[in-house]
Amino acid sequence: MTPLLEVKGLQQYFPIKSGFLKKTTGYVKAVDGIDLKVYPGETLGIVGESGCGKSTTGRTILRLLEPTAGEVWFDGKDLAKLSKEEMRRMRKDLQMIFQDPYASLNPRMTIKQILMESLMVHKIGTTAERERIIEEIIEVVGLRKEHLNRHPHDFSGGQRQRIGIARALVVKPKLIIADEPVSALDVSIQSQVLNLLKDLKKEFNLTLMFISHDLSVVKHLCDRIAVMYLGRVVEIADKRTLFENPSHPYTRALLSAVPVAKPRQKRERILLQGDLPSPANPPSGCTFHPRCPYATEICKTKAPSLSDIGAGQLVSCHLVQSGQLK
Ligand code: SF4
Ligand code: MG
């Protein structure tokens, strides 16, 4: 199957400026050469600790941040090469759901105006059709027509996120990137919004990229999962493989911290040593080596590449690739 989105060698380096003359003295390598594919109708989860570059990856794909390098193939076009105007038109097909819907909803506009604006920007429908689309979409996300004339501050966090979802859906995008869409919500509300996304995914055959620091959230919704560490992808696999047979030592450590329903499946807790290093000064070789319980000499000098260890499971680790780590 042809991927809907294919990211190749994506980089996002932020310059570090210092001194009176604001000279560039280095770079924060927030995204450091990422390859990803998202297939039509699937949900790809992107997980990792905060600061690993997940959100920056999403924003760079959508050109909310200009990429430093790399290609972003979507529907036969390299988004990284489009002009601002071409990209603006493309946004109809590429929508984002943000972590904090409140910050992204204009407080002076009614919900109807917010949704209408999206349709108008992308020249969708006549006025009458727009009215009808908006009335439909508000019910699809579990709110009512009466809500349309209210303002964002009249709603709870969960309701605001429903509005954020409606705004993304209303233009019928081909791909939605959801960046931690439930992490600002109370736990009780989180599952309602996740269930809504799950239903919508089925109903509209949505293709989603779902960014989260929380593996149990990703497990709920995703078909495949990519694990990020310090601006790179260290493992990608389908959900079942990742949860039953995690291979990269970092994935194993992340999973060992997730509570499991059946105690028989309980994994030994792997505690990572030290903190996440600074992406301004990443460790040499495999950037995970200072925290990896299995690191050997080669790990300090040679960076592993992401390669297929079978059944579409891609892992970036010398020991896994050589079969020394099962
Ligand atoms: Fe650990 Fe080495 Fe594998 Fe990196 S390459 S994850 S340091 S064993
Ligand atoms: Mg983030």
UniProtKB/TrEMBL annotation:
Belongs to the ABC transporter superfamily. Pfam families: ABC_tran, oligo_HPY. It comes from the Bacteria. The keyword Lipid biosynthesis does not apply. One of its GO terms (molecular function) is ATP binding. SUPFAM superfamilies: P-loop containing nucleoside triphosphate hydrolases (SSF52540). The keyword Ribosomal protein does not apply. Signal peptide: none annotated. The lineage of its organism: Bacteria, Bacillati, Bacillota, Bacilli, Bacillales. Gene3D superfamilies: P-loop containing nucleotide triphosphate hydrolases. Residues 16-255 form the ABC transporter domain. This is Peptide/nickel transport system ATP-binding protein/oligopeptide transport system ATP-binding protein. Keywords: ATP-binding, Nucleotide-binding, Transport.
